[in-house]
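Researcher: Going back to the complex we discussed earlier. I've cleaned up the inputs and rechecked each line, so this should be the final set. Can you rerun the prediction on the complete assembly and write out the structure?
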Amino acid sequence: MSFSKKEIWKEFSRNNIGLAGIGIIFALFGLSILAFLTIPVETFREWNDPASWLSYPKSALPVWTNYFLPQKVPEHLILLPFTSIQKSSDITAFTNLFFVDYQYDSFPSDFIYQYDAKYTGSPLVTISVTRPDGMELELISTSLPSSTTESKFTGMIFSTDDSIKKNLKNSSDRFSFSFDTISSGDIVFSKPDQNRILKGHYIFKVTIYDVGGNILLDQSRFILGGKVYGLMGTDDLRRDLAVGLLWGTPLALFIGITVSIVSVILGLVYGVFAGFKGKITDEAMMRFNDIIWAMPVLPLLIILAVTVGNSIFLIVGFLVIFGWVGIAKVSRSMALQIKTLQYVEASKLMGQKDFKIVFKHILPQLLPYAFASIAISVPAAITAEAGLSFLGLGDPTFPTWGQILHDASSYGAATRGLWWWIVPPGVMIAITGLAFVFIGHAMDTIVNPKLRR
Amino acid sequence: MGFAKYLAKRAVTMFGVLMATLLVTVALVGANMDAILKQSVAIDVRTAIINNKPLVESFKNHPEELEKYIQNQIKQEIISLGIDQPWYTPSRLGLAMYKILTLNFGHAKFLTSDTGSSDVKDIILEKLPRTILLFTTATVIVSILGIFLGAIAASKVNSKIDKITSAFAVISSSFPVWWVGLLMIFAFAFIYPIFPARATPTIPVTDPGYFVSLLYHMTLPLITIVLIGFGSWSYIVRNFLIGILQEDFITAKRAAGIDKRKILYSHALKNAAPPIITVLAFGLSGSLGGSIITEAVFDWPGMGRLYYEAITVLDLPVIIGETYVLTAFFLVSIFLADILYGYFDPRVRRQ
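Model: Rerun complete. Updated structure for the full complex:
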């Protein structure tokens, strides 16, 4: 029943499935490190803040889907400006030009102009576009909120703005179709004779007229809303799913590993103590164990999450409450066997303390079994947390995979065909679970020679 | 220890579990429940007094006196209802437990049954058959498929079919059922619109076609549960059977020249029955608990969705009633498994 570390590793390295599991877990840890390195921790808080995702597209497919499509779907483009300043007597015209060679087969979903301005007074902002066919369209002219002291203003102009539509209506005679049901974005990028995409070079011109002359423009960006974005696409709230999935990895590993290690240690100590003490202590402890074991886990987890709280650490605690029971049962029966071995009897006769016998002679014997059960109980913890989050009872401040799926389901992603919002989180849950199952399985065959054939 | 004594001991433990679960539930929601009750009493008393025109008229010149009077009335009402004491006083706790045990769950705060009743008992009795219908059907199909596939895999260890079954078992059990449910809705309600995405029939309950419509709406959840379940099932059956096929009595039967098939299906399977039945009972009770998420995904109008709705609006009487019924079902199925185990395995009885 005893194994040396070397023997276990030797056995393990012969098991392909176990090695595959180790490989996947290394990859997942790599992803977690990547998440910590590439994504600043402050952005964690921005996950649920719609304002921080405004420049991203709404429910965009992953970029790579373009390879499988006969028509090139427009990519989400964030354009940077070419700046020029003209001064005439007391008016300063601050111009930003945005060039784009639009070669996609359909309209952009919308366009947004985003800027940070530092100014005094009340500057005027105008936006116009020069199209490949030479037509020039005025889009909007609006003034910034007036201010007597120097103030900073972060603004956004959306293509859905009513005044853009009104301005476009002034040139409706240059188009041979009705504007009524068509969005402003579709008009700007349309051929004049019919509502089809007009490919070629577009120039968007943003001009800010200022009387004072001390205006400063930062972060001036022109965004052409596309239908594909990034490696994983975006969701209905414009969040980059690649970021969410990447963050989900360390969170899932944290939840799974913490829950399983804590519950295995608790269960091991509880079971060994009960088995070693025997008699009434054993009986009482095992009855208590029976009671927790037969409780319906999910309903109680839900009630706990609703009444006590749903922070991620509390949820880890709740999962531990129900996680240690099975391990306690098995380790008790193993302790009962080991207790009757002669060397344990001998050390008892020598007058060694109970505490020392348990920690020196019994627990080490159970270690291989403990490792196997840690690996096997990780997936259950991850799935349970994902399930709770899916019901909307998880910690909303952390983008776990279950949380992403909860959002997907509450926005009806399945019935609307937004597969890239549903498939990756579930696949990640399954892959993580499988990796630990593989390792647990390999450990099991070492610990239980009966399973070897 | 006789079998009767063994069963009695199990029954006592089960009752203990039921009580412990209820106690935990009442303890967790008790404080909330009191606050909500007191609030609703206050509102009721206040509206009753304000609507009593002559009474308000008599306080016309003394608004602060009216307020005092209202507060007094509220206090009296709270005392007469017995909620002036905290929920954990033994008399209130005992009363609460007694009420729950006798299935007197009170009235729901927000939810109603399809027929409009707000009695928690009515609501639960309406939803319970639907959950049982879905999950029992699923369990029956899963166990038949599982036993059949498991027997085939066990008779040809390490063959292609065995490897495929085992791989499918491991992979399918690591996907959450509700996630596969989302995929199924995507595949069969969006890409190929064969089945409805929401499993609640749109016609009223009183319509004669309701049951047929319910069965049609049940197809997608049923397929999902079966798809996720039968793989791991056949793997369990296979492992039990392999263990038994290595026993001496099977070798003896083989040596005696008994047909291989007969050995597998009648002798080996019969001996594997006790553990299989236990796992089956656990699977059924476990899926009842898991029904909360599955039913929420498919919008199946059963116990699970009711629980989910009750949680989202914090309808405490419904939560308590549901927890009681779910726990009772869970325990009854474990207890049944114990009895069946003893019936199939005489060693337990004689122990």
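Model: Worth noting: The two ends of chain A are 18 Å apart (CA to CA).
Researcher: Good, that matches what I expected from the previous run.
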